[in-house]
Design a protein that fits this description.
There is one protein chain. Helix content is 26%, strand content 26%. With 265 residues, the protein is of the alpha/beta class. It has a single domain, classed as Nitrilase/N-carbamoyl-D-aminoacid amidohydrolase (4-Layer Sandwich). The strands form three sheets. It has a six-stranded mixed sheet with strand order 5-4-3-2-1-14.
Length: 265
Amino acid sequence: MRASLIQLSVDSTDSADERRRRAASLVRDRAGDDLVVLPELWAAGAWSYDRWDHDAEGLDGPTAEAMSTAARQAGVWLHAGSIVERDGDGTLYNTALLFDRSGDLRGRYRKIHRYGFDTGEATLMGGGDDIVTVPTDLGVIGLATCYDLRFPELFRGLLDAGAELIAVPAAWPAARLTHWQLLTRTRALEEQVFLLACCATGTHGDMRQAGHSMVIDPWGTVLGQARTTEETVTVDLALCEVTRIRSELPVLRDRVLAIEAPVRR
């Protein structure tokens, strides 16, 4: 399969409509690929908290509509990054969307771990509670988003749900680039999956983005990596490598699931 990460440049001077038009055009350019992945909250800006309420939308909103059309026109599976979703009771969620080659919405994941501690996403958005995997003609795709990378329990849950490839859209700060590079490789290595980590570039909400989107194989080897400008990384993957590597180095069968915490005296 051929997979592409579109590392969009997200700048505070762009409108959501301008970003949607550019993203749709870049997706259409990937006709012939199998899977395309976009960054986290690229339409509203992951750090532009002041825009979230205005740019929030439903699952049938302008971003979903534009991405559905682009996926159909390109004939690709499209992980459209994530949107600021507003549900029926007005709660906002950081929601990732996966469309199939016909443009049908096949997967929705509300980000479980919200960044910000006592500010930002942690206070302005609700959190999801579902582990999401999607069976496709390419293999089973698991969904996670940005800050989720710091929580290995989620990725072990995706593994147990059958994930062979995990797509991670992000808007990771440039100041913590080394964390991004370490955590993405670690999650791929420990779960023995392909990991497609697509980060934004540019600056929004006064936060400079890390870029360095990466495709990582089940050995933890980086197969392709972007720099810090808007660009597309394309890599050919053989998902049969997941089975081969898990057989050659069968560490997952040695998991011990019931380790009791020591008693403090």
